[in-house]
Amino acid sequence: MGNPVLEIEELRTSFSIKGDYHAAVDGVSLTVHENEVVAIVGESGCGKSALALSIIGLHDLKTTKLEGQVNFKGQNLLSLPISKLNKVRGRDTGMIFQDPMTALNPLATIGRQIEEPMDYHLKLSSAAKKKRTLDLLRRVGIKNEQRVYGQYPHELSGGMRQRAVIAIALACDPVLLIADEPTTALDVTIQAQIIDLMKELQNQIKSGIILITHDLGVVAEMADRVAVMYAGELVEIAEVRELFVNPLHPYTRSLLNSIPSNMEAKAKLHVIEGIVPSIQNLDRIGCRFAPRVAWVPEEDHETNPQMHEVKPNHFVRCTCYKNFHFPEGRVGEKDYVTS
Amino acid sequence: MLKFILRRTLIMIPQLFLLSLIVFVLAKAMPGDAITGAFAGDPNATEERKEELREKFGLNDPWYEQYGRWIGNAVQGDFGSSYMYKQPVTTLLAGKVGNTVLLALFTLIITYIIAIPLGIVAGRWTDTWADKLIVTYNYFSFATPLFVFSLLMLFLFSFILGWFPIGGSVDIKIEEGTWDYIVSKMEHLFLPVMSGALLATFGTIQYLRNDIIDTKLKDFVKTARAKGVPERKVYTKHILRNSLLPIAAFLGYEIAGLIGGSIFIESIFSYPGLGQLFLTSIGARDFTVVTALVMILGTATIIGTMLSDIILSIVDPRIRVE
């Protein structure tokens, strides 16, 4: 592992709802190293995207409170004034958004949109900017880059647009890439292409990548380390192989159990009961996953769940993982659909 | 692009034809005719005399024959003669069209000068006191009837304070073409323009404000911020460009609306334009003038719509025609 690029410490992101602040990211600590892909996984509503946007302060500050530290290049990004933060955004960080259909300005050409961060961060002549942009377009796998340079977003397919979005993120050679569900909005075949592209790029650029996703297939393909997030907290952090082979936290195990397998085509899918509680209704005392594994006896949970390092580099929150098992007949293994 | 404009222009021909038919039939359906209008309140006009005149002007012919005659002349630029003013309609209109166009143009410009900055401020700084003030003004301007507001303006600024002339389009004592003449024109335009513009801002402000609030939350704005684009530039380069699109597209409709909407303003300010002529002509059943005027207003609407289409296709690459 290389040097740390990003150190998040006790990050708490709270949104104002009817005058009260509710934490969507609740005390997250995470480190991302050079040349490392850290995946953050969890269901919708777990706070993954809120976490990603907090790193470079993209929330509306009128309704959002950020606490803790985001240490990046020797400064705490949370304490930077917006003018200084703008020197970091797009220069040292790059952001890849979920939906390429909406992430591009419909009124500007692809070329202009890729050049825009260079306008603010790099001192380049317009000819140099164009050369760099064409080069970027080639690197993200766009073959007819001269044509695409002058095209508008609506003239491109979803996959091509996502490549353009990636090119924007890479425009100024960032040391940290934040990819917020980069494949979710794409067709499955295009998803595979984009993942291949990102893996290839990751080998070239050697920057740290935070990959937000709920697709465990993408995690297995790309990630070096995985952080599992539930209800605003990280519940398990491990290297990718360790996590898939030896998952500990009940939530992680439930997620892995929910992956459809092609071995047992007719097996019922495992379903995690209940839903992620909304941030207003979340019970912040005790193990937050407890309501969704009701069969686990109360004494198995910690009263104030902490992260425990069970093995080197393998962390898990709460003690409920120790005796955890799925109740019989619920797990899908032998639960065939009969009708 | 040229092909698109050409095609849009060609479509106008059947549109105009249809318009002329509807206008003519509706005008004919008005109770009374030019003769009853011309002799209204004249005790010496006998029914025989009126019938004689009807026969003379061909008013007893079936409507389609009258229409054929009328449209045949109209395409040659002859809209007949006014029964009331006893002069060709074209001559009658020529003196007024300029005034109305001037009024509409200035009203449009002032409307945008007021509405666009206010819409931007309200949209960008939502829920601040400035926004609340602008929205209040907006409800006020929407709720106030134009004729009430115009009368108030006239009463206050012309009658009480005497800052502006009470009516007309220019001081008749001043020679045409001099500097004083232009100043006098502007003085006469000021009140009608301001009355119209202050109330016409509603649509633009509300639309722009809502569109900015909507666009602010779009993903591409987040993309721009993630690039490190300063907030001011995020607005000018990304949000405003997108939000001004519908405003630009409405420009054509606004022009059409203003020319049609000048009726009240011109009547109240005794401004000699098409609108004022329209009202008096309807009262007098001056049939030839009414049909010609409705044709002009209709044509303005059709051209305005075409203009909107063309503007939108220029500013929005998504509907640009290859």
TrEMBL record, chain A:
GO cellular component labels: plasma membrane
GO biological process: peptide transport
Main location: membrane
Compartment annotation: Cell membrane
Pfam families the UniProt entry points to: ABC_tran, oligo_HPY
Annotated family: Belongs to the ABC transporter superfamily.
Name of the protein described by the UniProt record: Peptide/nickel transport system ATP-binding protein
Species of provenance: Sporosarcina limicola
Automatic annotation (TrEMBL), chain B:
Gene3D superfamilies linked: MetI-like
CDD domains: TM_PBP2 (cd06261)
InterPro entries: BPD_transp_1_N, MetI-like, MetI-like_sf
Residue stretches spanning the membrane: 101-125, 137-164, 189-208, 244-269, 289-315
Subcellular location: Cell membrane
One GO term describing the cellular component: plasma membrane
Keyword hit for S-adenosyl-L-methionine: no
GO biological process, one term: transmembrane transport
Domain called ABC transmembrane type-1: residue spans: 97-308
Annotated membrane topology: Multi-pass membrane protein
Keyword Translocase set for record: no
Primary location class: membrane
Swiss-Prot/TrEMBL keywords: Cell membrane, Membrane, Transmembrane, Transmembrane helix, Transport
Protein family: Belongs to the binding-protein-dependent transport system permease family.
Annotated protein name in UniProt: Peptide/nickel transport system permease protein
